[in-house]
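Next up, sample data.

:::
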Amino acid sequence: MAARWYVVNVYSGSEKKVAESIREQAVLKKMDDKILEVLVPTEQVVEIRKDKKVNAEHKFFPGYILIKMEMNDDTWHIVKDTPRVSGFLGSHNKPQAITEKEVMQAVDLAVSMQEDGENGLDVPNYVEDVSNKVVKLIQSYTTIVNKMVWRKY
């Protein structure tokens, strides 16, 4: 059986720990020839915190990891029994494989965004585009506000 790519839903914020744990379990159970790759697509960005530029890493798909593996009962249990794993993308009993092309598009997106600039996005143009869309959206709706009630929760 050929190895295919699968998407695994994990607890958000623990993608790297889950990926490392799956790699370790595959080696311990001598299944590293069946579980070939575990990816957490990320990008390097520059954030401004307390008026300082800080390098940070953002995940493209928070809460998901990509695994290239041969699907059988043993590999399914290695992944599914890993702590902080919710399950595979697809139906309950049959995980849905994704194509190599879809994985390459995700990886290429990550690479191209990193090559575009210091933080992956041309921020002034991005902000301008978003603000223009918001202004157009607001202008397209005409409403009358009769009364506003502010409540403290």
In short: The longest helix spans residues 123-140. The mean pLDDT is 77. The longest strand covers residues 42-49.
